[in-house]
Specification:
By secondary structure, the protein is of the alpha+beta class. The chain has 2 helices and 15 strands. The longest helix is centred in the first third of the chain and has 21 residues, at 29-49.
């Protein structure tokens, strides 16, 4: 409750700043309306952000490439899935560590992903879900698609996923229900600039948002009946270790999943 009051108070401050005008001046109706719309969106996003329970979290501060414990206490331990000599390597980040995944290459390339066994408490069904990570990706390391975190597959089961798309390096969020049809929302900005960014997906009711550094950068409407529940593993950094695994080629830290 306290977090909701804080978010609301901050949003009221944004509203006051958004519609403030110089003494003696009168705000243009269109400008005031646009500001009000932006603030209303911020209120809604803030409300969605404070609900739910963390069901998985990984800070990667143990310096290991496998047997990575779930910091949420829910026991979703990660193991390394590798091919062609692929691995993940700890690198310093803030006061702890992050993990570097295999670099972009051509030909027979190293592949690596981190996976935990399937668990029912990672299936949101139709409930609200948010999930995200801190990422560092250079423009030279972009590709047609790189998976950050996911559960399920779009063609053989339901799915939730966060990825970075195309040469431009724009994050996107994906939901796939029991019925055919991929629901995707893409960020309007790139994160492939060699700097750290937070990226996040939020689903609440009929809304799916993608956020970069805490700001909503894309939104779309989905069915409230869209349900994600499958027996697939939680995967980080790629779908697996095979050739077409949508390998992530940068550095990841602070991966988390919240449901409810």
């Amino acid at each position: 409750m306290e977090s909701r009051r804080t978010a609301f108070a901050l949003t009221l401050g944004l509203l006051a700043g958004a519609v403030a005008v110089a003494p003696g001046a009168q705000a243009a109706p269109a400008t005031a309306h646009a500001a009000a719309v932006r603030v209303a969106a911020a209120v809604t996003a803030a409300a969605r952000a404070v609900s739910g329970t963390v069901v998985a979290r990984y800070a990667f501060d143990g310096g290991r490439s496998s047997g990575i414990l779930d910091d949420s206490g829910n026991g979703h331990t990660l193991r390394l899935i590798a091919g062609n000599g692929g691995t993940v390597r700890p690198v310093p980040h803030r006061s702890g560590q992050a993990l570097r995944f295999p670099a972009k290459c051509t030909g027979t390339c190293p592949r690596a992903a981190l996976q935990s066994p399937s668990s029912a408490n990672l299936n949101p069904g139709t409930r609200a879900i948010s999930y995200g990570a801190s990422v560092l990706l250079a423009r030279s390391q972009t590709s047609k698609g790189q998976n950050i975190v996911q559960k399920g597959y779009s063609t053989t089961s339901s799915q939730w996923k966060l990825q970075i798309d195309g040469d431009a390096g724009r994050p996107s969020c994906v939901l796939v229900g029991a019925q055919p049809g991929i629901k995707i929302v893409r960020s309007t900005i790139s994160v492939a600039d060699g700097s750290w960014h937070t990226v996040e997906c939020r689903r609440a009711g009929t809304t799916l948002d993608v956020l970069v550094d805490g700001v909503v950068r894309g939104t779309r409407t989905i069915s409230a009946k869209l349900s994600v529940a499958n027996s697939r593993p939680l995967s980080i950094g790629g779908k697996g270790a095979y050739a077409d695994n949508d390998q992530f080629h940068g550095i990841l830290d602070d991966v988390w999943v919240r449901i409810g």
